[in-house]
Amino acid sequence: MDLLLTLTARVVVAGLNLLPLPLVARIGRIGGLIAWRLDRRHRKVALTNLEATFPDKSKAEILQLTREHFARLGENYTCAARTARMTPEQVAQVLDLQGFDKIKLELSQDGSHRIVVALGHFGNFELYARTHPGLPDMRLATTYRGLRHPRLSRFLRHLRERSGCLYFDRRHDGPALRAALAKPGIALGLLADQHAGDRGLRLPFLGRETSCSAAPAIFARRFDCRLFTMTCQRTALARWRIELGDEIPVRHNGRDRSTADITADINAALEAAIHRDPANWFWVHNRWKTIPRA
Hints:
The protein is an alpha/beta fold. It is 46% helix and 19% strand. The protein has helices at residues 2-16, 21-38, 40-53, 59-83, 88-94, 101-109, 150-161, 174-181, 215-222, 259-276; strands spanning 95-98, 114-119, 139-144, 166-169, 186-191, 201-205, 208-212, 226-236, 239-244, 251-252, 255-256. The strands form 3 sheets. It has a 7-stranded mixed beta sheet with strand order 1-9-8-2-5-3-4, with helices on both faces. It has a two-stranded antiparallel ribbon with strand order 6-7. Helix 1 (2-16) packs parallel to helix 7, helix 2 packs across helix 4 and helix 9 packs across helix 10 (259-276).
């Protein structure tokens, strides 16, 4: 099965790379709409999440929003496979960077900074690894969870590493990640908008209490890093804009802020991005699972 899945993935990626990006995006949207009709389980999760988050919207509006969300998912997945093999010059034609000026000049003058970026599942989020022009002289890094199929996992990692970003498996590469963060000039991106299980912080997110990842706050405090948020906004078909948010303070008046307060600020920034374009976020994840209190 692993070999079959890997061969299928290679054929699909190779086929998509023969096509222009706008056509790839349209194919993805069609695939997403097919999934919207056939994938009852994830459709139900998305509908439940959207209804609870936007109680003022009508059923027709929620249904239309869910449909568009599935179309966006298809577009994002196919475009992620296509943009992974694009050159930096090609990526620059379809990706704008916003908000990086607040730190770009400072980084170019002083390469000793370490940065943690709290990421969200927005748009073509694989493009986070292509933000080198906005973070000069910094090495981008992130974590991922390897798949159960070793060959397929290695293929996807190889595809992602073409960006020049460092990838660390959360299950096995902890020492290597800590060693990388001990050095200056690294920007670590951590996805922070999924359910964090029984080890997460219980905080409100989009109006409902849930388990939230404390990883960005913990890493920023432990390794003396500056902390930002980052989102990927879809601006048109097969066009995106990655936005670097305002810096989130890790200390106040010389004292460390609490992990909960820092995480609450991260949540607020991600919530604002979700409300701007709800279809752009990842609603098919069960973000508000019920877990017993400790």
